[in-house]
Design goal:
Elements (H helix, E strand, L loop, with lengths): L1 H18 L3 E8 L3 E7 L8 E8 L3 E6 L6 E7 L3 E7 L5 E6 L7 E3 L2 H32 L6 H31 L4 H10 L4 H9 L9 H10 L1
């Protein structure tokens, strides 16, 4: 009887853990002694909201919140020395790692959606990074001059038009990706990040989305913005 009782208690505990709304961001940053904060953009709220705070004394990070519905993007402030961005797509697999003496190398791991987005960003860079980088350097070179000649002004205008053309091509490719993947949550991040300069296009594409989870942070943030 005792064994049966213990078994039932264990099952209840495990079921409770599975149903928990707690989202965890954990990790270990060598040498970290200070405050860490978990922040996110929340639907209808201005700026970023602090979801959790922790005073770290041994490098071990353990931030927890019940206010966040995955998937969505969060930022982890590491004692004011750096901010790590992460897309949360699991409740307890996100891991922050690094060394406090190298704050720019601290990173988040454990998100399949974030890995997928990083791979897509590489494709953006391969497609448009070289052209945009080149035209940005030309614009900067002319803009740094103390006094612009008429030829400088003409070339500056040409380069700015070139940049706008490259940006339109990038936006069109983003639009095609979203339209081809209306049920993927990655499309919500593309919609928010890549098309933020075109509110009308964002609204039009958002209406076509076929996302099952309409309670996630990223969906609600967009829904509130685009309603």
């Amino acid at each position: 009887m005792k064994r049966i009782g213990l078994f039932l208690v264990l099952v209840t505990f495990l079921l409770g853990a599975c149903d928990s709304n707690t989202v965890k961001v954990r990790g270990e940053v060598e040498g970290l002694k200070g405050k860490v904060k978990l922040l996110a953009e929340m639907p209808g709220e201005p700026g970023l909201t602090i979801l959790a705070e922790q005073d770290v004394t041994d490098g071990k990070i353990d931030l927890r919140t019940e206010q966040f519905q995955i998937p969505g993007r969060v930022w982890v402030d590491i004692d004011g020395k750096t901010t790590v961005e992460a897309i949360l797509d699991t409740k307890d697999m996100i891991w922050i790692q690094g060394k406090i003496k190298f704050p720019d190398q601290i990173e988040a791991k454990g998100s399949g959606l974030m890995d997928e987005y990083d791979d897509l960003k590489k494709q953006y860079k391969e497609r448009y990074g070289k052209d945009l980088g080149k035209v940005d350097r030309l614009i900067e070179k002319i803009s740094k001059k103390d006094k612009l000649t008429k030829d400088d002004e003409v070339m500056l205008g040409i380069h700015q038009l070139q940049k706008q053309r490259f940006l339109r091509q990038r936006a069109n490719w983003t639009k095609q990706l979203i339209e081809a993947n209306p049920g993927k949550e990655l499309s919500l991040f593309l919609l928010k990040d890549e098309l933020q300069d075109s509110l009308a296009l964002q609204k039009r594409l958002f209406k076509k989305m076929k996302i099952e989870n309409k309670e996630s942070n990223i969906y609600k943030v967009l829904e509130t913005k685009l309603q």
